[in-house]
Predict the structure of ATP phosphoribosyltransferase.
Amino acid sequence: MKEKLKIAIQKSGRLHDDSLQILKDCGISINNGKDQLKVSASNFPIEILYLRNGDIPQYLRDEVVDAAIIGENLCLEKGEDLPILKSLGFSKCRVSIAIPNQVDYQSPKDLNGKQIATSYPNTLQKFLDQHQIKAEIHLINGSVEIAPSIGLADAVCDIVSSGSTLFKNNLKEVEEITKSEAVLVKSPHLNPDKKEILNKLLFRIDAVLKAKDAKYVLLNAPNDKIDQIIKILPGMKSPTVMPLAEKNWSSLHTVINQEKFWDIIDELKAAGAESILVNPIEKMIL
Ligand SMILES: Nc1ncnc2c1ncn2[C@@H]1O[C@H](COP(=O)(O)OP(=O)(O)OP(=O)(O)O)[C@@H](O)[C@H]1O
Ligand SMILES: O=P(O)(O)OC[C@H]1O[C@H](OP(=O)(O)OP(=O)(O)O)[C@H](O)[C@@H]1O
Ligand SMILES: [Mg+2]
């Protein structure tokens, strides 16, 4: 296969490090020359282009790049036509409207006639239209949260994650327009060779993400407790059970999802499990 899939990731900013990391976790070797805007992987048919996040939707549409890792909120802002292939679980945030702490707020109607500063005019306009609100949008490219305190706007619409930027600027979040996380998107048109490379990459990303959510658990238990313990385990298929050197004891191996992990461990202990070992999983292929 001679074709290479061109993948855009953010040149610098919130998404850059985790985007590179997920490709590396997929076993893709990227020799990162500093200041290089385009690099080829040495062991997988992709070329990585480092671009501004905000420019990527148009590059995908123009087929300058074939796929990209961007913030989901950018799809709502500039790329509703771009197919989202996978949520990647990092750069989680939301796009929200915030107003000064001392101002009362009941409903979106309170935004009527107000001036709202934002870097996401389309996202905000869609929200205002949905609620039949007429407000004036001030486009600002950064440090949006400062706008109310310098008299530039009555409200802001920007990204919120921990909420500390709002807090420091005496603002309160009053409407959440959308949630966001990093996503893998693709150009609307891809030739069959490129589709095949993208599917291979997706397969690897799936294995990496599944493994992140799971732990490999080994435990010892007396044989007469094994049936009860197996009922507690939500394993992949059924757990591996192996006899221990000690008579009437066995070792059980299974995979437990991160989300329910501690509850299950508590139940296992109560049911007689001992010497529970928990290991990270590097890749998970089901
Ligand atoms: N505080 C945050 N916490 C979590 N995710 C965030 C945060 N701020 C931004 N993001 C996510 O990261 C993406 C990139 O944000 P960042 O501020 O790095 O770049 P940008 O200014 O939007 O883009 P460009 O690369 O065009 O300069 C956003 O679209 C959003 O999805
Ligand atoms: O809720 P928090 O955890 O405080 O995060 C929210 C802040 O993070 C982003 O800004 P960033 O730091 O990316 O700076 P920017 O304005 O230059 O994009 C966003 O624009 C908010 O200002
Ligand atoms: Mg930012």
